[in-house]
Amino acid sequence: MKEVTIAIIGNPNVGKTTVFNALTGMRHKVANWPGVTVEKREGHFTHGGVEFHIVDLPGVYSLSARSVDERIARNFILKERPSLIIDVVDASNLERNLYLLLQILEMGVPVVVALNKMDSAEEKGLKIDPKRLGERLSIPVVPLVATRGEGIEELKDAVLESCRDGKRPEPPEYPGFDGHVRRLSELLNGKVENPTLIALRLLEDDDEVREIVKERAPEALDEYRKILREEGKTEEELLLALADARYRLAAEIAGYAILERMERMTVSDMLDEVFLHRWLGIPVFVALVWMAFKFAFDIAGPFVDAVDALFAWLGEVAGEHIGNEMLSSLVADGIIAGVGSVLVFVPQIAFLFLAFAWLEDSGYMARAAFVMDRVMKKFGLHGKSLIPLLLGFSCNVPAIMATRTIEDEKDRILTVLVNPLMSCSARLPVYALFAGAFFAGREGSVVTAMYFLGIALALVMAWLFRRVIFGGESSYFVMELPPYNRPNWGLILGVTWERTKKFLAKAGTVIFGTVVLIWLLSVFGPGGYIGPEAFESGEALSKSWVAWIGRALEPLFSPLGWNWKAVVGLVFGLLAKEVVVGTLGILHGVGEEGLGEVLAASGDFTPVSAFAYMAFVLIYVPCIATIGAIKGEIGGKWAAFAVAYGIVLAYAVALLIVAGGALI
After folding, report:
1. What is the pLDDT of residues 399-422, one digit of tens each?
2. Residue 408 assigned to a binding site
3. Which part of the chain is the FeoB-type G domain (predicted)?
């Protein structure tokens, strides 16, 4: 048998990623789906002498194609025609998960059900018989506890047997709709592929299907209108009636498979009593975020010292062994000093990623969204906005792309506009540098304050934009809380490494190129070549192009207490926020080793002006990649607006901090 393509699908939070990783053994690659920036993962595994190519479809609740993820999943199944679909079903929430399975069965594609989280179902007092479920659905059902690797080999056996068998399941029949489906299918037969599926989608008033039917079988469209008149329903009412019929069938199938239900208080229930408490929920959220930063800074200390020593040694070696003066300065004063001053913070960033990956995998982040929804609603943000905003803590670019799940256009634009205020990982080196230099012993608290300042400003600006620009109220937010999970350290470490690797990749490209540019502007000036003396003498550096740029803009920032070197850091930070640290390292003639001490002793900053500088970096113009993402998602006009309001807001907040500090 040649290579077989299969797809894996499931609701969010059912353990689909764990099953995918268990099948592929982490042999996968990540790209984007054609035409969109939604992540696409593919992998391979061999079983029974057959090579399987497995595609991980986005986590969705249905295939109604009302969001980008749903369209991707549905179009892949219909157009790419995989040989088989693995539907990962959460056994502890069987009825809800069966809705998606019924829609897959409507497509007539061979399906194997991976009945995951059997341990969670047992903990909830549910006794499920996978064999009865398989008999009722007429498809293979394999029980799993994917986090422990239980059932994975049996799942591979079922996939192999089903692919060899090639048997296609019968589409489900919905009481009250069987006659309608038959009437439409007869008119569509021979004119479209899978007439039963097209008939069901027409009854759901699917826009794409309506156009296909209008072109190929207009008589079926007339029959659909006749059905509406007979039922006395609008298109929306008939759609809801069909959805209700699916839920009733899902409930009936779940009832057949569940042999015993025992209501019992689970650990998840007990945890939710605290994490979702009306008054305790938000303080717990704040405390957990603070603990994540405290963990990152305290644990990373020895690793930071080790990286610090490494780059100090590299700088000395480069200075001693490279004979050419200009090349030696480029390597030691430019590349090692600039890139090294950023990379020294990689341990802190990696440990922070680790902490947040653990919170995500545990199931807590969904609770954080639920808790914060009450607050967000008051500020005019949609509940679905929280997930893109939380993603902004990693990187604003994919976070902005994630707003595509928000159906209302006003809610979506509003979420995109305030997303750059969420403090991405690129700003962390700046926070770490200044917090360590001016707030020793309180680094975790100061950095946490920056993150919460970003959240507070995002809420305030959302409230202002909602009332001044968009008007109206945000729509309601409905979400399903996943069960709490035991830590899957393989997945957590994998996510941590992927995010850290992206940070390192940026250091090897954008940051590298920028520090070389800064070095060139530092060793050359209006009068010509200055040489490495620029990094040893303030007088020599003052004759460079970089000083010329800084002094031209310095008057604008003098009310904030910053000199031209600080201004130059902000200018080059437009390319990437990490570059701010590299720039300051070059301009002060030091690498990562001792930059904090040099800043603290230089007199360029006070604790107040340093805190204001951190706030400015948080708020002002997002990086070039983020501006491009905003333009691509909601247009150039809104991208220009985001840049303009960011500059004004950053200056105003920094000025307030400086003025407040002077009063105190």
Report:
1. 787 776 676 778 889 999 999 999
2. no
3. 3-165
Q: Write the CA distances from 510 to 335, 364, 503, 656, integer angstroms.
A: 12, 34, 11, 32
Q: Across-strand partners of 596? A: none
Establish whether 298 is an annotated binding residue.
no
pLDDT tens digits for range 142-196: 999 998 889 999 999 999 999 988 888 888 989 888 889 899 998 988 888 888 8
| Chain position carrying tokens 């333009």 | 631
Q: What is the pTM of this model?
A: 0.61
Q: Are 422 and 399 in contact (CB under 8 A)?
A: yes
**Which domains are seen in the chain, by residue range?**
4-165 (3.40.50.300), 178-260 (1.10.287), 282-477+508-663 (no CATH)
Closest CA to 563 of 620, 609, 598, 531: 609
Task: Compute φ and ψ for 111, nearest 5 degrees.
Answer: -130, 140
Start-to-end C-alpha separation, the chain: 77
Phi-psi region of 110 (alpha: psi -120 to 50; beta: other; left: phi over 0): beta
55 belongs to an annotated ligand binding site: no
Which two tokens mark 574? 């437009």
The Cα–Cα gap between 391 and 608 comes to 29
Instruction: List the structure tokens of 557.
Output: 């920032």
Does residue 238 contact residue 228 with C-beta atoms inside 8 Å? Answer: yes
Q: Say whether 563 counts as a known binding-site residue.
A: no
Tell whether residue 550 is among the known ligand binding residues. no
415 known ligand binder? no
The annotation status of 189 as a binding-site residue, yes or no, is: no
Q: How far apart are CA 24 and CA 27, in angstroms?
A: 5
pLDDT tens-place string over residues 452-506: 899 899 999 999 998 888 876 655 555 666 777 777 787 788 878 887 887 677 6
Q: Is 262 annotated as a binding residue?
A: no
Q: 10: annotated binding-site residue? A: yes
Answer yes or no: is 339 a known binding residue. no
Is 614 annotated to bind ligand?
A: no
Q: Has 571 been labeled as part of a binding site?
A: no
Residue 59 counted as an annotated binding residue: yes
